[in-house]
């Protein structure tokens, strides 16, 4: 190994004389050799749990004065893996961490293992972890071994081993800055498989999630979102599996929970699709969304309601040839914009289920119309507004409304609906108060008549005002 170190020093000296080679290239070449050297000089695999627990008891006995035999060097090398875990933590055994740190000053191999163990078992706000970071900083300042240079660089740039400051500085660099996400992770030493699943990376992610909402409200929101999603799910797989799903979803949605401006459609769709991919649809996988919280989940439901509503009217435009669709879309879009539609669900006839477009737009979140008396090209939009369930049919179908507690009120989010499920007697619709016309008194549903004059719209608006305490004006619903 001494020959390898000497070869590395000679290579660095030679590269420094090559003036036409950039500093980045020199560093990259050296770093590759350092990595190879470390791979042969450091075994990152910790001892077995059984061996570590036996060592913990043995070292605790020595430092308590119950065992006269001081730890051997091999025991100190292994002790790094129990310093910040178990009970008692090795770092809580008075004298042990100082002994390990002192031994590491003369051994780059032990120093590297100490760093690996600290990054793996890192816990924010831990007193012993903070003390370990201080010991590592002192070790790096005192040691000149080239194998530790990357960690010295990380400390200089990110205050990496400052337990209170380091994770936040790495998180800020991941969200914005001149370097790519991959370059930041490499500079922080967190792109190695051993470290990307450790406690320090978990702390970085939590810091990133705290900072993300303000970043999504900034002028650089789109770039921030792209970088954040790359960090959160590299290669399409969520870091730490399901452990941080609730925190991730809350952070991604928090920017728009305070009544501020809606996100740009492209950003909203990117966030929505990411959450659908990794948490599923809250309308059909409610338990997975419980850690997210009611407010953030309600926002996601409204975004999905928009998705269902847009898909419904796109399908009407494509298949129904209904002259009313423009007015219907304008009316319900206005209700959605005002936040009245808390939930929505679409059910498709057999011909529409096979439509590539509907499958893509709805991402599998829809029900099916079944039964012999269902038209293959029909679609139904179910909406929840206050205490009411409303059902819009495509083509020339009527609009129906029920109090949600009525037994024949259709439930949202079902996989299948028959025609009878969606056509039961419901509430009467009052006449349009402005014209005295329209309405439907028998509970069989409202015909979309007089769209250009706002006849049926005024009738629905009156029903919503009476039953859901939601008011909407012709200026809002007119296309």
Give a structural overview.
- With 479 residues, the protein is an alpha/beta fold.
- Among the domains are: 1-37; 308-477, no CATH class.
- The chain has helices at residues 2-16, 23-41, 49-63, 73-79, 96-104, 108-120, 127-142, 149-158, 166-175, 181-187, 199-216, 221-232, 245-254, 265-279, 286-289, 294-320, 325-337, 350-353, 356-362, 419-422, 455-467, 474-477; strands at residues 341-348, 367-369, 379-385, 388-393, 399-403, 416-417.
- A hairpin with a 2-residue loop joins strand 3 and strand 4 (388-393).
- The longest helix has 27 residues, at 294-320.
- The protein is elongated.
Write the layout of secondary structure elements.
Blueprint: H1 2-16, H2 23-41, H3 49-63, H4 73-79, H5 96-104, H6 108-120, H7 127-142, H8 149-158, H9 166-175, H10 181-187, H11 199-216, H12 221-232, H13 245-254, H14 265-279, H15 286-289, H16 294-320, H17 325-337, E1 341-348, H18 350-353, H19 356-362, E2 367-369, E3 379-385, E4 388-393, E5 399-403, E6 416-417, H20 419-422, H21 455-467, H22 474-477
Parallel strand pairs: 1-2, 2-6
Antiparallel strand pairs: 1-3, 3-4, 4-5
